[in-house]
Amino acid sequence: KENEAIDRLAIVGETFDVVDNIKRDKGKPHIHMTVRPIVLDNNTCWQVFENDQQIFNFLQEEAEFSAKNKKNLE
């Protein structure tokens, strides 16, 4: 429940698309967006991974996070 707002913000940042008219209008302010993936820290945030090896597997897309297991993760 405490991460509900953060989850919504992550979804918006991931899916937000800047309207073409805003990009083309030179006289109007522009929107600059930067979307960066993050890996949560198990020590300061809620526990996401079981151990360091699982974090490594996630970053390298190996083991349980490999492409062949993608459907299981959705």
Secondary structure topology:
Blueprint: H1 4-15, H2 20-24, H3 52-60, H4 70-73
Overview of the molecule:
- The structure is a single chain.
- This protein has helices spanning 4-15, 20-24, 52-60, 70-73.
- The chain is mainly alpha-helical and 74 residues long.
- It has one domain (4-73).
- The longest helix has 12 residues, at 4-15.
- The radius of gyration is 17 Å and the shape is globular.
Strand content: under 5%
- Oligomerization status of the protein chains: single chain
Our measurement of the CA-to-CA distance between the termini, rounded to an integer number of angstroms, reads 20 Å
Q: How many helices in DSSP terms?
A: 4
How is the main sheet built? Answer: none
> Which geometry do the CA atoms define?
globular
Number of strands: 0
Low-confidence stretches: none
Number of structural domains? 1
Protein structure class: mainly alpha
Q: Note the run of SSEs as H and E.
A: HHHH
Mean pLDDT level: 68
Gyration radius, rounded: 17 Å
Helix content: 40-55%
What are the main properties of this structure?
single chain; about 70 residues; mainly alpha; 4 helices; about 40% helix; about 0% strand; globular
